Structures
1.
Amino acid sequence: MNQQSATTTTTEDAGRYGLPQHALQRIAEAVTLAEAKTSAEIRVVVTRAPLVQHPFFSILWASLAALVLPWLIVLAYPMSALSALALQSMLFVILAAALLMPGMAEKAVPRLALKAAARNAAIETFLSYGIPQTAGRTGILIFAAARERLVEVVADDAAHGPLGAAAWRDICDAVAARAREGSLAEGLVAGVEKAGDLLAGPLPRKPDDRNEIPNHVVVL
């Protein structure tokens, strides 16, 4: 099992982070067409749920700032220890309240933490949806975290072996390029089409090939 990731910059509105039914159908049709060229199995999953608990990082940054900033102020404006502790408490309350506000809480999460969470979520999804259970170990997952604007590709051994990490980067780039233009749906279609083209060479469709993984998009 191997993985690549990329960042997108899009939101697709149906709910706030969802995909309208016609877009889901278009992606499913792209999967069907891609799999007509290859024995590989392609699964697309989109999650709208937050990948991390935002309040944790808001409280973390407020705590760190409240620990450090008062002592810098004390260096410039000497005060009693009791006053410094009171200042710490006041700063923590103010900063925590500000960072817990809608919009600010998400910005408080480090990008590295989001990417790590996306990787973990993609691997968990890959396993929980039975993608490693294909007969030829040819399954791949294209996983999009709509809220965080991240995309991950996880590939099983037989798919990864002949192509390598560069192929999965190409798929991520295909999704991200169209997503930056404003459409996550079109980005996912482009990623699926790219996957079909890349996989068709080393893993061509066989006469007795059967569809082992449903082609519809899973929206979490």
2.
Amino acid sequence: MYTNLQNEVTVMDKTDRKNAVGFAFSGGGLQGIAHVGAIKALYEMGIKPQYVSGTSSGSAMAALVAMGCDADDMKRVAEKYWKDLVKFNPTSILQSIVALKFSRKNPGDGLMDGVIVEAMMKSVMEEKGLKTFHDLPINLTVCTNDTKSTDEVIITTYEENLQNEYVQYITDVPVEIAVRASMSFPGLFTTCNYKDYNFIDGGSKDNLPVKVLKDMGVGKVLALAFDVMDYTPQTGIDGLMKVIWRALDLYSINGTRKSMEMADYCVQIKNENTALFSMDNIDQTIQEGYNCVMLHKDEIMKIFK
């Protein structure tokens, strides 16, 4: 079903990394599917990364790229699994709230269980004959946050000996757990408990993880972000989720702007027609990601080719 790349991760020294290419994928709910179109465009240009990083839904896209998936593979995964992630309607919300109030069982700390995220990642890993971070053909970095220590937690393929205040770097995490941790949107998905950590969505601190790639010595980093000024208030359930997401954007917007400046090039994808938690217009969303990258083809080719 999926493109099969059996190469192991190449561990580059700092000198080699000066010429390495990295992609940083931002979060953005279902808008993250636009990254599929971005990858299609970049691969058509012959530009492929040796390093990828991602936050929230961007972590899922980064993980799929790191597994060796092409755009067609990524679309198949989205169509198969993401519909289960977005089964979020007034009835399901009401049922979840009632369960929170009246159930004798511990319902957790979110309206939806994030196990589906784990299942999605684990399925693709198994299809491609991969088991751990070390098996991935492309180096992967995933960003999340720990509610206990309040630190940002960055999960990497290998120990990088990086040190930053209030940031922990760890390596001993399964890929499916790392992605679930980064996608644990507060209140929507249950938090992700792993060992002594209690992880929540990485976007609350770093929604565009460019800095970690630069800290690792990656020479050329392309940031794939969503237009921070592209926001239209809405009503209804999707409007509710959109304003919550926008609030998180506002908390992290200065960091996102710094990340855009730090990147060697940044493509801001406009995706105003895509609902945060809806499978409507998935083809259009992917096409918008493709078109946005192609608009910048000349500039991207000058830097990354």
3.
Amino acid sequence: MNILLIEAILDRYVAQVQRRKKDWRPAEIEALLLKLREEVLDCLR
């Protein structure tokens, strides 16, 4: 379990969204959130 990595993961996702200055479709948001969820859960294991 590496909780300290969660902040870095969240920062990476925020930066990724900020770089892509576009209108997000619901399917794209869902895919991004699912990937984020998976990475955070991996840190908690």
4.
Amino acid sequence: MPEPKYIDQHVNFIQPEWSRLRTTGKNESDYAVEVEADQHHINLNSNLDAKIQNPLSGIPATLLYHQVEDFATKHQLLEIIPLLIKGALVAQDPTNYEDIKGENALNDEEIECLRDEVLHKWKQPWALYITIIACSIGAAVQGWDQTGSNGANLSFPDLFGIGGKSTRDTMLVGLCNAAPYISSAFIGCWISDPLNNYFGRRGTIFISGNFCLWSVIGSAFTTTWEELFICRLMLGLGMGAKASTVPVYAAENSPAVWNAFGIFLGFCANLIVANVPRIAWRLQLGSAFIPAVPLCILIFYCPESPRWYMKKGRYPEAYQSLLKLRNNPLQAARDLYYIHSQLELEAEIVGNHTYLTRFTQLFTVPRLRRATLASFTVMLAQQMCGINVIAFYSSTVFQKAGAGRINALLASWGFGLVNFIFAWPAIWTIDTYGRRTLLLFTFPNMAWSILAVALCSLIPETSRAHLGLIALFIYVYAAFYSPGAGPVPFTYSAEVFPLSHREVGMGWAVATNFFWAAVLGITLPRMLDVFTVAVGYFLLLPSNTFS
């Protein structure tokens, strides 16, 4: 296949350039092609702004037919050659498919399906909705795991002999809470690439789901802080691999709103078992197994990622997977050939390298380095805004603000509810206004609301306004967080890397997020003991403003 032309670095797109092709035959059917190779090679080290546009644009029809036939012959797809040719023509010019004439003209059913893609976006096959549900449950597992320790923080430190005010005790409490993020940042996120390579997206989600399932059950039966720490380290292995895989598997099919739903359900579980004597904290930790069970079961009713099959050269299986995810075979054939064309171009750009080489390229290849920096920035910003301070320790914060044990759990439940409700607008706004716009709007509003929390903490605890205003502005803060800094970082990071580096790139992004979550989780208990709640929130203000 001829190589696409490299465009000047000031132009924003790489697009195949066919005007220089010279055919040696008397007509297009004699399509022996020569390429002037001196300018047709893509070099991402010098092309600072390049993006890959439609790789099929501008290819002469006869040449496209030959390429499709070669593709079908190579990948055992001869029986669908006519459908692949139709699909390639649609992919080449997605807006003018009704103008295709001759033997490749689309029938009424095919035209109607292509129209429905634009006019009726929710009219999708059940297999796609099952995939969305599975990915949503995966995100809910994440949120529930995050908040399982929130209510338990009011009980387990005293039972394990680490409930004192000493530096040792407060650091051990923080260490137990941060354990999943420590193992996620240093191990879980990085094993997602080899796991995806060998077991596929579904297999990786199943394996990580089992870690999330059995580790939380084990944590409910622990008798020492060391046992709890080990169980939560095991939980982190699953969390890291899952958090690096689910966004890639779902792409934008599964809104990140469901992570907020998991946080809300975690707070519900904390409240439900709050009055169970002695073992409440065990139920609060162990309840996170509930969403992990349907995740492990449901994932095998979902089709495997077609892109993963194609990376492995298993094109017939990729086509069968696309048939389940699309309403019409034409759409499946179109996407199969279009994805194949993208993969060929990406392979030319980055080559076929080992895991270590791909990781190194995240920092050495300009295109990948920009993606790495962008994902690092949005993930760091999500943690530095202070949201997980509340997700981890809101019950403790409300109790220190003067609330009783049940009222602290109720206030935390309210935080989870606000987080979930206000995440819904992201479904419509994330594509309408763009990822960057949402972040630029929500972060300043989060900054002033966290400042308001800090100022309200200075109100005397004897005043009835003290707890009420703190809770109010924490809810305002959550309302701004949920449609912006909540779903955007994971969605953005899953999109910004090319397929060849998506697993290792997403592993880097999620590891960044979880590392700083671990730092906050370890240090906050000590901060709350050394400083007042007001000082703690004042310390979050600069990082929030910087984000």
